[in-house]
Predict the structure.
Amino acid sequence: MGEETKYIAPNMVNTASVNQDLSFLKLSVYLEVHGVKLPEDRYDEEFCLRTEDGRYNNLARLLSDNSNIPVTFAMVNGTSERDPAVIVRDFGDTCLFYAMDSVLDYGSVLNIPQADERDRIVTRKEIPLFDQKAFNAAVVNAFLHNDWAQLNAPVFTVYKDRIEILSHGGLPEGQTQEGLFNIFAKKSPSSMNEFV
């Protein structure tokens, strides 16, 4: 009998990038700024940037200077998807780390402290529009846990009453939504109120 062929699903590492003319200057700068000293000739091996046949893969495309993958951040004038977007920014088409940092920075700009005049005696209390640490964690999680196989980036939308982050993909195989919530509930019961 012949050798059995095993199907391997397309992923970021085994799928060749449509663009093979990639540069990594921004990745190099990002790594240096964050204290990672790695010669550029080691990127291919350290970051698994090539397919088995030596072509740049889609992971290389994501980390390249010009990924051609949009990362959209919209502000909506209302509380519904049907309400008009008043601002739409694209932070993509660059190294994934730069795109993520741009979304985090933009969130910081939007989080303007508001005056809380309730129970004011002498000085007013200023409160942010949203919890910056929670926003940052959600953004990083959206980028890290996004299913990049289809080259769709997370989408960020700010409504008048909430922030929505759409990260593509799903739960790991065998995991259920109920099981995931049970894990969170056991580890941090007080934070479950924020999710439910």
About this structure: Strands lie at 72-76, 85-90, 114-116, 125-127, 155-158, 163-166. The radius of gyration is 21 Å.
